[in-house]
């Protein structure tokens, strides 16, 4: 399974990648070990985004900063093929101040076929490929709205949050690179 199986056509796409001087197995381990406590930019943007939810009394108490980055991706993991790729996918109402309605749990086909108005379908994939100099770790995120009104609303939201979302991905790639390369000596 890959991202095309979840969100084949998207309204918004972001891609980041970095070559890391380490084998795929080491990069994979570090990607899956990376804790939120090691990601100050991610923590800041996550706290800002969570504030309206908490103020509305809708926040749930979760484990602390010992969670990994991949544990807190807001959409479920759909497939994993170590050390090649991991795919996440789901539907969200992220532009709503308090996060919107609780999304249904869907498999890849369910996300791909979802058409209820008022939602965006989101897919995210981390892919590791061997390359000259080590391993290319890439992250791609795709978002597709289910209707024109949602496309407009999400587009405005995305305009505001895309820089922070991209900064989170770059911070993650950098942290994984630093840890994986340090293991290589």
Explain what this protein looks like in three dimensions.
There is one protein chain. This protein is of the alpha+beta class and 185 residues long. It has a single domain, classed as Alpha-D-Glucose-1,6-Bisphosphate, Chain A, domain 4 (2-Layer Sandwich), CATH 3.30.530. Helices cover 37% and strands 25% of the residues. The protein contains four helices and five strands. The protein has helices at residues 24-33, 40-55, 108-113, 148-184; strands at 12-20, 77-81, 85-92, 120-131, 134-145. Helix 1 crosses helix 4 (148-184). The longest helix has 37 residues, at 148-184. The radius of gyration is 17 Å and the shape is globular.
Broad CATH class: Alpha Beta
The spatial strand order of the largest sheet comes to 1-5-4-3-2
Number of domains: 1
Task: List the total number of helices.
Answer: 4
Low-confidence stretches: none
Q: Tally the beta strands.
A: 5
Rg from alpha-carbon coordinates: 17 Å
Protein name: Polyketide cyclase / dehydrase and lipid transport
């Amino acid at each position: 399974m890959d991202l095309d199986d979840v969100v084949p056509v998207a309204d918004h796409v972001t891609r980041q990648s970095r070559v890391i001087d380490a084998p795929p197995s080491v990069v994979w381990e570090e990607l899956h070990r990376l804790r939120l406590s090691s990601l100050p930019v991610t923590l800041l943007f996550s706290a800002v985004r969570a504030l309206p939810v908490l103020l509305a009394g809708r926040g749930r108490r979760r484990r602390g900063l010992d969670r990994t980055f991949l544990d807190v991706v807001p959409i479920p993991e759909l497939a994993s093929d170590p050390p090649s790729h991991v795919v996440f996918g789901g539907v969200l109402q992220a532009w709503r101040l308090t996060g919107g309605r609780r999304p249904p749990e869907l498999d890849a086909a369910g996300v791909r076929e979802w058409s209820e108005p008022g939602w965006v379908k989101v897919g995210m994939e981390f892919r590791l490929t061997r390359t000259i100099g080590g391993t290319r770790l890439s992250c791609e995120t795709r978002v597709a709205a289910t209707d024109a009104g949602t496309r407009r609303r999400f587009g405005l939201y995305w305009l505001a949050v895309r820089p922070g979302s991209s900064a989170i991905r770059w911070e993650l790639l950098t942290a994984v690179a630093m840890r994986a390369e340090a293991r290589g000596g």
